[in-house]
C-alpha cells in the first residue's frame, strides 16, 4: 500500500467531521508557553504532497481533510516550528528491480524536499544541527530536518547513506510495515526473518553512528529496537510510536522496552495514528469498500484537488454506511501521559504521523497542537518539561549523536 492508501484505509474524515478545538479550550497561559517552546514534530509525511499538481506548502489545504494536515498557514496557527520531513518509501520487491525503484524513489523525494526549500527560502530552511533549528526558528522561519522512513532506498547500495547525509539526512528509520534487507518489522505477517537486525542492518547502524545520523526504531520489531539500543554508540529515538501497555498493537512499545530506551538516553515521540491508539474492530465490508476506492486512485503523486474532493465525499458515504470507531484526543493523551509516567518527561516527544495517517478527533491537523500543551499543563507538567517534550529532548539526542560522529573525512 502507498502512504495515501494507508491514510484512506484509516478512514478518518478529520477535517470535515472532527470535533476540533475551539480557541477557548486553550488558555492564554498555554498559548504563551506554546509560543515560547521550540515546537518540533519528528514525523511529517508532508513531502508526499509535494509532487501533487498545484499543491504548495504556503497555501491552506484544510479542504483536503486528512490528505493534507501540514502547511504554512496551519503551522503558524498551531505554533509548529518544523521537524523531521520524511523520505518515505513503501516496501516493494526485494530484488534488483525493486531495489532500483526504491533507490530512485528515495532520491526523487529528497530532490522534492530541496525543491520546496528552494521555492520558499524566506519561510523554510534546511536544518543540519540542533543549533540550526534554534537559529531558524528564532528568525521566524520553519525548520526542515530530513529523515528516512524505511531504509529500502539503501538496499542496492548501503554506502548511499553518506550521499544522503551530505544532502541533509539526519534521521534513519530501519523498516516500515514489512521486513526488509536491514531488519524485521513489527507488523510483517510472515514473522521475523532476521530475529532483529540483519548483518547489513548492523553495518548500517555503525555507518549511521559514524556519520552522526539519529537512528529511528519506529515500525521495527522489538528485537530490532533492543539491538539498536545495544549496538548504537549514541541514543536512538522512536519517531512515531505509542504505548503497548495502553493498547496492545504490535506496532507499539511495551513498558519494559520503554524503560530500556529511556535508560539509554533515547526519546520516544508519541504517535497519533488512530489504529495504534485504540481497538478498532475489523469490518470486512468497510475495508473492501475503502480498498475499492483506493484502487481508483493508484498514484498518490497525481491526486488533484478534484480527486481529493471526490475521495473525501466517497469516504463520507462509506463512513455513513459502515460506521467505525474513531480515536479521540483523550485516547491520544492516554498514551502520551502513560509514556510520560513510565519513561519520564526527559525522554518523550511528539511525532503524530501527520500526512501519514495520523490525527484523531480533536487533534485533526497541526493547527490543533496547542491543545497538547494545555493538556500537559493540566496534568501538572512544568514549563521546562513541556518545552523539552516539544523539542528540547529531541535536540539533546541530536547533539549527542552528532558529537559522537567521526570528524568529516574520516568516516567510511
TrEMBL record:
* Signal peptide span: 1-23
Gene Ontology molecular function: any one:
metallodipeptidase activity
Q: Name one Pfam family in it.
A: Peptidase_M19
Gene3D superfamilies for the chain: L27 domain, Metal-dependent hydrolases
Which InterPro entries does this chain map to? Answer: Metal_Hydrolase, Pept_M19
Q: Which UniProt keywords apply?
A: Signal
The biological processes this protein is annotated with in GO are: proteolysis
Highest taxon of source = Bacteria
Q: Which SUPFAM superfamilies match?
A: Metallo-dependent hydrolases
Q: Which residues cross the membrane?
A: none
For this entry, the protein name equals Peptidase M19
Amino acid at each position: 500500500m502507498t502512504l495515501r492508501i494507508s491514510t484512506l484505509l484509516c478512514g478518518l474524515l478529520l477535517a470535515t467531521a472532527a470535533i476540533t478545538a475551539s480557541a477557548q479550550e486553550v488558555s492564554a497561559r498555554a498559548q504563551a508557553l506554546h509560543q515560547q517552546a521550540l515546537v518540533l514534530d519528528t514525523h511529517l509525511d508532508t513531502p508526499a504532497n509535494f509532487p501533487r499538481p498545484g499543491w504548495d506548502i504556503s497555501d491552506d489545504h484544510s479542504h483536503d481533510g486528512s490528505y493534507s494536515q501540514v502547511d504554512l498557514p496551519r503551522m503558524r496557527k498551531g505554533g509548529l516550528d518544523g521537524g523531521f520531513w520524511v523520505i518515505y518509501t513503501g516496501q516493494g520487491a526485494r530484488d534488483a528491480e525493486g531495489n532500483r525503484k526504491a533507490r530512485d524513489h528515495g532520491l526523487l523525494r529528497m530532490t522534492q524536499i530541496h525543491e520546496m526549500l528552494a521555492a520558499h527560502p524566506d519561510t523554510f530552511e534546511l536544518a543540519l544541527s540542533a543549533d540550526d533549528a534554534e537559529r531558524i526558528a528564532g528568525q521566524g522561519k520553519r525548520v526542515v530536518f530530513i529523515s528516512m522512513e524505511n531504509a529500502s532506498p539503501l538496499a542496492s547500495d548501503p554506502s548511499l547513506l553518506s550521499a544522503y547525509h551530505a544532502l541533509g539526512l539526519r534521521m534513519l528509520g530501519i523498516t516500515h510495515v514489512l521486513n526488509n534487507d536491514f531488519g524485521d518489522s513489527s507488523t510483517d505477517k510472515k514473522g521475523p526473518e532476521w530475529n532483529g537486525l540483519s548483518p547489513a542492518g548492523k553495518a548500517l547502524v555503525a555507518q549511521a553512528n559514524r556519520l552522526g545520523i539519529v537512528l529511528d526504531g519506529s515500525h521495527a520489531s522489538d528485537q530490532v529496537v533492543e539491538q539498536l539500543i545495544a549496538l548504537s554508540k549514541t541514543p536512538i529515538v522512536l519517531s512515531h510510536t505509542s504505548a503497548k501497555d495502553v493498547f496492545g498493537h504490535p506496532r507499539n512499545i511495551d513498558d519494559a522496552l520503554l524503560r530500556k530506551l529511556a535508560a539509554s538516553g533515547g526519546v520516544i515521540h508519541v504517535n497519533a495514528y488512530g489504529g495504534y491508539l485504540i481497538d478498532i474492530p475489523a469490518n470486512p465490508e468497510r475495508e473492501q469498500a475503502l480498498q475499492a476506492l483506493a484502487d481508483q486512485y493508484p498514484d498518490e503523486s497525481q491526486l488533484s484537488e478534484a480527486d481529493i474532493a471526490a475521495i473525501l465525499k466517497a469516504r463520507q458515504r462509506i463512513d455513513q454506511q459502515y460506521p467505525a470507531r474513531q480515536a479521540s484526543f483523550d485516547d491520544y493523551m492516554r498514551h502520551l501521559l502513560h509514556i510520560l509516567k513510565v519513561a519520564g518527561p526527559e525522554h518523550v516527544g511528539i511525532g503524530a504521523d501527520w500526512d501519514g495517517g495520523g490525527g484523531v478527533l480533536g487533534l485533526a491537523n497541526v493547527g490543533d497542537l496547542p491543545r497538547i500543551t494545555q493538556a500537559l499543563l493540566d496534568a501538572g507538567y512544568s514549563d521546562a518539561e513541556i518545552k523539552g517534550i516539544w523539542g528540547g529532548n529531541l535536540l539533546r539526542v541530536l547533539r549527542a549523536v552528532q558529537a559522537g560522529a567521526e570528524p568529516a573525512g574520516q568516516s567510511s
